Amino acid sequence: FTWIISLYLYFQLTKNDIVANDTRVQTEQPWHKYNSINEPSQKYSSKDKSYLKKGSSNFLNSGKLIKKLQPVLAPPSHKDKVEEELMNLGIVRNSKDQEIRDEGYKTHAYNVLVSTRLGYNRSVPDTRNKLCKDVTYAKGLPSASVIICFYNEHMPTLLRTIHSVLDRTPKHLLEEILLIDDQSDIPNLHEDIDDYLKKNNMSKVKLLKPETREGLIRARLFGARRAQGKVLVFLDSHVEVNVAWIEPLLSRIAEKSSTVVMPIIDIINADTFAYTSSPLVRGGFNWGLHFKWENLPKGTLDKNEDFVKPIKSPTMAGGLFAIDKKYFIDMGEYDAGMNIWGGENLEISFRIWMCGGSLELIPCSRVGHVFRHRRPYGSPDGKDTMLHNSLRVAYVWMDDYKQYFLNQRSDAKNIDYGDISSRLQLRKELKCHDFDWYLKNVYPELALPTDDEEHLKKKMPDKFQPWHSRKRNYVAQYQIRLANTSLCVQSSKDTKTKGSSLILGVCAKNKRQMWYETDKNELVLAQLLCLQAGKSSPILYKCHEMGGNQEWKHKGGKQTPIYNMAAGTCLGVSKKAVNATLTMKLCNDPELSNWDLVV
Ligand code: UD2
Ligand code: MN
Questions:
Q1: pTM for this entry
Q2: pLDDT digits (tens, 9 = 90+) for 276-291
Q3: Residue with CA at minimum distance from ligand 1 atom 10
Q4: 430 in a structural domain
Q5: Which structural domain, as residue segments, surrounds residue 241?
């Protein structure tokens, strides 16, 4: 009993720690539930906005608008609680928080304030198809060495990666975790990790460091060559593995050692650390040799059981996969002539398929990965290693088809891609199929570039997010009026100009002041552009549907703060005046950051 009491007290204390100094949050939690002004005691679940959704698009199309945020009497769901907790974790309470957050975005390109406050052992939603729960795996699966390379990773995020593996991998299947510190230059990072592992007796985790910065490809080789397990599992250093993630991977390799298998990569939002399920998509590429996600061929998921069966994939994203150790060695490991980042995923994909193996996605294995908006590091010599590495892929594996790549990359002409003779030799020794065979047998869906596409060869987005649905569901429409004034938030220009700032204007029923809220908590002006939190002020921007800086929470009704999930701050103004510019502020100034939603 005392144990329960102390646990309870502990939670209360840590909770207070999180919300200390923020009286508003203490008194008004949970504030992402809609509290109607008429019925102050009622709770409305943000999740259950489906009631507003019903027929809402028809509603809008017919010119009528939803008049009111209607109440729903549903207890907060588990998902609501998780959302609420993530929201609290993101709150910027003072300038110190702001500093940590800004510095974190610079060094790591994600929200370290949230990540730090999350701690090392959070649970994640089980995103597997429910049929996965009924699958049983043979006894005596091979053991795995999990290899995690990192360069300047944020320590709490890395530790959560490690703990998730330790917590969710059966002991007998985990030989070791090899942590390869690729010469990180954040002061004390290496020592701090080392201390942590020692203090917590984490002897299964071995921290190693090559003599020079190798880049992720040679750092993985460094780890693989020291691994004791029968299977190698590669992971990025900012992931969280899901329940029973490793069994289906090992089981498939045990059946056939020349299958290389991948989990489905779920999405950990870089701004909020929300963990969400990814759709079943497979890996492809384009002629710029950029990896991309694509829909499965028609018919792949016809029957229920197809959702638990391995799915063939022409390529891998690169970060997360399992491979039989002996097969990895026999196959020529990785191309050690590749530097820092990029291209190795297509190289190993082509090689596996062309030289007799196969590459599969395992839907019952899921691992979340933090998808960042940019890569926060470069190469030591400042060169584009992706291009260098892609040239090696093209010249070793693509035969005449490499011309399509070269046509797209006029900047590739004078790049020295190094000596590839040993890789060509490998291809010969392994008696691999040619690239034409690969295209015809593994990836017949890939179209050859047409003249049209030549024109589209402009800069490819660096991105490789699993895509998101484009359908937008509006759940409410209102003006946003500064409380106790007659001033409303409006675009500084028209409603169409990307990047426009927002200002206060005298409230008037025109479209520059008409905000449409979506079921993803976006605020869309005149159904065109999304309100997006910037560093110090919000702007109008193309809706990216990724939540984060376009995700806004409020209580509805009158006198509500409008909180941004990524920024951890609220929508505000510096003064009550026409033309005053909207800013992002700490959420503790009701005079200048409380709003009435006027329907
Ligand atoms: C994707 C892959 C990544 C890799 C890359 C192409 C996923 C989820 N991620 O990019 O694994 O295949 O495409 O090369 O599929 N690192 C080092 N040394 C370095 C640079 C990076 O150890 O010099 C580490 C880094 O800390 C991270 C991993 O390598 O753990 C991958 O790097 P990333 O997360 O920046 O790559 P990502 O996910 O954008
Ligand atoms: Mn990554």
A1: 0.85
A2: 999 999 999 999 999 9
A3: 319
A4: no
A5: 117-385
Ligand 1 mean position, distance from CA 375 (Å): 9
Sign of the torsion formed by the C-alpha atoms of 340, 345, 346 and 349:
positive
Q: Identify which of 336, 565, 593, 360 has the alpha carbon closest to the alpha carbon of residue 485.
A: 593
Domain boundary among the residues 364, 385, 406 is at 385
Element (H, E) at 257: none
Length of the chain, in residues? 599
CATH number at residue 94: 2.80.10.50
- Reduce the secondary structure of 282-294 to three states and give it as a string: EEEECCCCCEEEE
347-384: b (≥16 Cβ within 10 Å) or e:
bbbbbbbbbebebbbbbbbbbbbbbbbeebbebeeeeb
Residue 453 lies in a domain: no
Of 107, 148, 151, the one to substitute when testing ligand 1's pocket (max ligand atoms within 8 A of C-beta) is: 151
Mutate to test the pocket of ligand 1, among 236, 290, 339 (most ligand atoms within 8 A of CB): 236
Do 146 and 10 lie in a common domain? no
ipTM above 0.90, yes or no: yes
pLDDT per position as a tens digit, 297-315: 999 999 999 999 999 999 9
- Separation between Cα atoms, residue 495 and residue 286, nearest integer Å: 35
Ligand nearest 320 Cα, by number?
A: 1
Atom nearest to 234 CA in ligand 1: 11
